[in-house]
Write a structure and sequence with these properties.
heterodimer; A: alpha/beta; Rossmann fold; B: mainly alpha; 12 helices; elongated
Amino acid sequence: MEMLTITNLQKRFGAKPVLQGVDLSVPEHSIFGFVGKNGAGKTTTMKAVLGLLRPDAGTILVSGEQVVYGQTNTNRYIGYLPDVPEFYGDMTPFEYLTLCGEVCGMKQSEIRERSRELLDQVGLGAETHRIKGFSRGMKQRLGIAQALFHRPKLLICDEPTSALDPVGRKEILEILLAVREQSTVLFSTHILSDVERICTDVAFLHDGKIAKQGTVGELKTMGVSKEFILETVTPEGAVKLVQEFGRYLTMNPSSKQENVISQLPEEWKSGQSHKTELRFTGEEELLFRVLQYVAEHKIPVQKIEWAEPSLESLFLEVANT
Amino acid sequence: MKSFYAFLKKEWLEILRSGKLTILLILFLLFGIMNPAIAKLTPWLLQAMSDSLEASGFLVTDVQVDAMTSWTQFLKNIPMALMAFVLLCSNLFSKEYQSGTLVLILTKGLARYKVVLAKAFLMVLLWSVCYWLCAGVTYGYNAYFWDNGIASHLWWVLVCWWLFGVWVLSLLVLFSVVYSSNSGALLGTAVVTGAAYVAGIFPKTAAYTPAMLMDGASLLSGAAEPETYGKAIFITIVSGLIWLGLSIPVMNRKQI
């Protein structure tokens, strides 16, 4: 069964179309990565799901129930963690969670028990200070606790790890993994390693539409061109290869063609760098041509290997189309 | 109702811990003390200044003060107190919009109308506590020094002014919902209150405007009877309810 179904969602801000017919379905008990560039419309989509933003067209169903703008009925199924969660600074974490429980209509005994349980789970069990003195990471953890408070069927997290240090990121991802048994998780991000680490399903949002959607395994192989990595011993050799095969290199979207040399790192051009790893997009035929060129020009090579298909490659490919 | 009380409790906690309640209580207490104090000090002040006043051609004779002087002072001071109250409470909504704190609570399923009602209720409650504290302190001192019986229709005067304050707050709620900034809320409230005041200047409209409730001096001196305020009271109550009622659909459509 689908926990969230979005059909033909459209939204424009003034003359700028942000969502141009988003179709998305999130299966129950999945951890769904919602990937897109900054400004792609991820937060807009999430706010529409929460009924906080009026879409221009389209329908959104949460657990089979239609979302109506300005009304909060479907929000009883949803727990929401924004990218920067904001709390009432004069309250303690326990008081804030108590407010959440009371707003959800839970019993006092259950509220107390659940507050303690969740605060312990996110490592804020001993915290009695007011929230206004909390760090970003502490706020993020409290954000997760409030989002999970009423045991939501759908947990929506908007870039929950983007501003955290590696330890904080790991903690948040582990909590999301643990939540999967009870809830469906939809989380937006542009950190693809996080998606590969915990997600079961992924959708790429590009140009206001879902460009690709599927399980992580499916997407890794879906339409991705093969890639191989070649590492030269000297920067000079790398520069020669770039001049010859520049258009096959996986680099910045804008640097694929003739301007690729101008975009090379300055250290390469000055010969001060030893990091000369090149990533080529192409099949065996290209590999043989590159090897032939390397042999003919006597370019010393450290390593050459096929690259593992990755979501990053697919994302870059989607972003470049 | 449980979620309404929960949000109301949050509002109360916030106003308590932010120190806003203490500031308002001290302010209104000072205003309450100031009314009889100024009345009491007037003869002494005039006496102290009599030499310089005499030099200017004014002759200071025996100055009589009573409870009426103090209540007149109350009517002069209370508009300032109301303005201070409105200024201090003008960010009750805008703070939530700008910081984004409302988003998490709304996504917990709290109906938007409960947010409007809880904040409006708290504002009216606070205004009532502060206003009656001020009036009570003035009444107490007046009773101690003089006799409150000299002021005609005193309770009418006090209730009218309290009601006018509630009407202004209902405007503040509406404009706080319409605009996301403090300045927008204050400007909207000031413009409508100003319009009501201007309407009160013209004899044909004076009896129908909420601004008439500010004119307590005529009632105190016995120059007017409470019945003449009937239409203004009715219009104040009805329009106040309309402002509050309008706030709810506006809030439901507001992008947060």
